[in-house]
Amino acid sequence: MTSTISTKPASSAWAIFNDQSFSFETLRALGYAPYGGADIGEVTSTAARIPDGDLTAWYAQWRALAERIHADADRSAAEGHPVSARESYLRASNYYRLCEFYLRVDSSNDPEVREVGQLSVDSFARAAQLMNPAPQRVSFPYEDTTLPGWWIPADLGTAHPTGGDPDGHRPTLLYHGGFDSTEEELYFTGGAAAARRGYHVLAFAGPGQGSALRDQKLLFRPDWDAVVTPAVDWLLARPDVDPDRIALMGMSLGGLLAPRAAATEHRVAALIAYDGLYSFADMVHRLVGPEIMKLIGDGLVTSDTKANALIKEIISSRTNTFGPALPWGMWVFGEDSPAAALRAFAPYTLEGYAPLVTCPTLVLDGENDPCDSSRLYEALRCQKTYHLFPAAEGGGEHCQPGAVSRLHQVVFDWLDTVLDTVTTVS
Fold first, then answer.
1. pTM to 2 decimal places
2. Which residue among 90, 166, 385, 407 is least packed, with the fewest CB closer than 10 Å?
3. How far apart are CA 192 and CA 201, in angstroms?
4. Which is nearest to 30 in space by CA: 416, 418, 404?
C-alpha cells in the first residue's frame, strides 16, 4: 500500500477548460458521480456552454442545471417515485454548490449567493429523507455554541470486517473538510463510502467551513483539537459508537487540521490525512512566489500596498488556481486584505505537532498535488503509511476528484485492517 515518495510535476488537471481552476472544479463535481452527485452528460454538456474564465456564465449555467434537476426531483417526489426524487435531489445539491463556488466572497452578505448555498443544503436534506437508513442533521456543543453536521448511519446490512453487532455498535468515522468544502459535500467524498462499508459517520463543518461559516460566522482557527475534542465527546455519548474504533479524517486543508487535532486528542484510533499538508503558509509561498512573501513579511503599509497590487494580478487570472482562493481566504480568516490573509495562514502548520500523533496514520497524496504531503509523512513518528496516487491512473489531482472509487478502496481497506488490530493510547 505504501508508495515511493517522489518529486511532483506542476498540476495538469483534466482539461475541459483552458482555465485550470474551472477544469479542477468541474472535475471535482463530476467526480461525485459514483455516489450519485453528478451525471457525466449533465456536467460535460453544461461545461461546454461556459466560456473560459466567465464567472457570470459559470453561475448562470450551473444554476440553470441545478434548478432543472431540482424540478425533476420535485416532480418525481410528487408523483410517488422516491428513488428518482432522491437521486435528483443529490445531484441538485452538488450543482447548487458548484454554481456559487466563485461567488462566495462573504456570501453571508450576498442574498443571492446565500440563497443558492442554502438550496444546496436543502436539496441534500430532501435526498437524505429518502435514504434508508436516513442521514440526520445533528449538532454538537462547541464553546458557547454548537457545530453542525450530518450523522450518516452505517448500512447495518453490511458485515464490517472489524466487527459490529446487530444493534449498530460500529466503528465510526469522524470526518471534516478543508478550505472550501461543505458538510453536505462530505457525503460524496467519503461519507457514503464509509457507510456502505459498515461505518457510522459524523461529517461536520468546523469554524470556517460550510454552515458554521455561513450561518454562524465562525472563522477558521489553527488549534483544531478545540473542534475535534467536543466532537469525540459527542460520539462517545452515543450507544451505537464503538469507543475504541473512532477514526478521524480531514480533507484538503483538513489534511493539516486533522493531524493537528490528533496530536493532542489521543482517543482517536486512526487518522487519515486526505491529502496531507504540513504547512499552509509554505504551500502558499510556493504558489505566489518570494517577492510577495517578502513584502507581506515586512509588516509595512507600503509593502502591503505593493503586495496587494501584485496579488490582484493573480486573482484577475482565473487560469491560476490560486486566484479564486484569496478573496475566499479573506472571508474565512476574517481579514480585510489579501496580504493580511496570507499572513493569517502562518499558524497553520504541523511543525512541532506531527511528532505528537500517536495513532496509525495514512497520508494520501496525488502526483500533481501542490501540497507537501510527503513532508507530513516524514515528520510523523507513529505507525504510518504513505500512498501516492499516480496521474496515469486518474488520481493525480488534489484529493483525487477523478478517482474517488480508487481513493475509497485505499482508505477503507487500510482503515479496516488498522482498526482490526489497533490499541488506542489514552
1. 0.91
2. 166
3. 9
4. 404
- C-alpha distances in Å from residue 394, one per residue of 154, 407, 411: 28, 10, 16
Cβ atoms within 10 Å of 426's Cβ, excluding its own: 6
Round to whole Å and give the CA distance between 302 and 381.
43
Torsion angle in degrees (nearest 10) through CA of 313, 314, 316, 320: 150
* Sequence ranges of the chain with CATH classification 1.20.1440.110: 1-131
Q: Which grid coordinates belong to 329? A: 481566504
Q: What is the pLDDT of residue 1?
A: 35
pLDDT band of 20, cuts 50, 70, 90: confident
Tell me, yes or no, if 426 is annotated catalytic: no
Residue 149, pLDDT > 70, answer yes
Residues of the chain within CATH 3.40.50.1820 domain(s) are 133-279+348-419
Give the fold, CATH level 3, of 133-279+348-419: Rossmann fold (3.40.50)
Q: Does residue 332 contact residue 179 with C-beta atoms inside 8 Å?
A: yes
Q: CA separation (Å) from 281 to 250, 349, 399, 425? A: 18, 8, 19, 31
Pick the CATH number of 1-131 from 3.10.20.120, 1.20.1440.110, 3.30.450.40, 3.40.50.2000: 1.20.1440.110
165 burial type by CB count under 10 A (0-12 exposed, 13-18 middle, 19+ buried) = exposed
The catalytic residue among 21, 181, 211, 252 is: 252
Residue pair 315/338 in contact (Cβ under 8 Å)? The answer is yes
